[in-house]
Amino acid sequence: MFALHQIQTRPLLLNTILSPKNLPSSLLLIKMSSSWSCKICTFINPPSQTPTCQICLSSQPPSSSLSSSSLSPQWPCKSCTFLNPYRNSTCQICGARSSSSALSLLDEEIDDAELEEVGGSDIGSVFLPLKGCTNILKSCSNKGKDLSEPSGLIGLRKNGKRKIMDEEEGEGDDSGVKSDDATKDKSVTERKGNFLKIMTYNVWFREDLELYRRMSALGELIQLHSPDIICFQEVTSDIYDIFKGTSWWKTYSCSVPRDKASTSAYFCMQLSRLPVRSFKCNSFHNSIMGRELCLAEVEVQPGRTIVVATSHLESPCPGPPKWDQMFSKERVEQANETIKFLKSYKNVIFCGDMNWDDKLDGQFPLSDGWFDAWSQMKPGDAGYTYDTKSNKMLTGNRTLQKRLDRFLCKLEDFAANEICMIGMDAIPGLTYYKEKKLKKEVKKLELPVLPSDHYGLLLTIGLD
């Protein structure tokens, strides 16, 4: 993962000047003696008597001006425009090289007259959507860094715009399980009235498709909806580390300690802003995919608890030669085992990626007192959480529209108030390329990027 402490937060200057006589176009010198960078939109404002940003009208920070002598030399990558330290001969992001002879010119003194010449028009001309970074992905750590808010990691977009994400130091230990009573008490009081929000989301373990940007967008959904309990599926150790570095993570207790996250290919994970009595995890006896049932018993009010369970039931894996590896039998057995196990609880919610196919698996085996929240509250709405037609990121895939993700409830002291689908919008300005074979011709499709291949679900319940 990216070492965020090595990522420069100073943006590229639109008026960066190069001397064509002394410097090749692969080098960049930044003049910031009197100009200042806006922390909100990153625009470099020229010297002015007006202490506000020309773009977004934000106030100039009191200590924004820097002496040019205090800046360490840097060179910009022509492929992705990232500012690299003088000591590096290759770009930290995309691996493009800069010649040592060109780097040596940074040691020469450049006067102000030369800085007035306009140059470097080819910088950033090679601006393709970023793919998974193999250059420093595994060698660096983003521990304690925040990807969810302004002022940190620079994410590059195809259209040349940049989104700035927070680089604030994270808190909490490596166990992943927090027990800060003050934080939880504050979370309880911040909830509106007597309502409780629960989110379930399969985050998609595909790490080569804009992982950081997708997880950052998912983090924005968390900050927008402020769920009290979150159930994730398909979390990887890298995704775990990304989440752990965000500001919103600090308000949750996590069911998965760091040592387990680092040794699992992917897993389910639960987060709670409410006081947690216990986290439990039971493996399904018939799973060949290592699937399990995870439970969180949380205290909603003193003496009043609710159990929230999540799972990623056995996945269909059709493939040659017969294309019949659907694992329906295993999935149905796991569903029955779960409902039987949870029946003793007074208030319980079972949510997650059920991989359920009503045509193949039949009706979900709910016993008396249970109900399907989507079916009950949105009758007539198909509720496809995996939809290759509406999710344009999946264009070119085999057509599939299924309600794979569900909320199944048994409530005595609570009532379901609302359920909605989230994460249905593409991430602005971000695309990726997919090759699709049509007849004998291979076409390259430019497609939008969404937070996941699944949509998420958000359920709101209230005290009955």
TrEMBL record:
Region feature Disordered, mapped onto this chain: 158-185
Subcellular location: Nucleus, PML body
Residue ranges with Basic and acidic residues bias: 175-185
One GO cellular component term: cytoplasm
Any Pfam family the entry gives: Exo_endo_phos
Entry keywords, A to Z: DNA damage, DNA repair, Hydrolase, Magnesium, Metal-binding, Nuclease, Nucleus, Zinc, Zinc-finger
Alphabetical list of SUPFAM superfamilies matching this protein: DNase I-like (SSF56219), Ran binding protein zinc finger-like (SSF90209)
One of the GO BP terms on file: double-strand break repair
Any GO molecular function: nuclease activity
UniProt cofactor(s): Mg(2+); Mn(2+)
Residue ranges occupied by any RanBP2-type domain in the UniProt entry: 75-94
Protein known as: RanBP2-type domain-containing protein
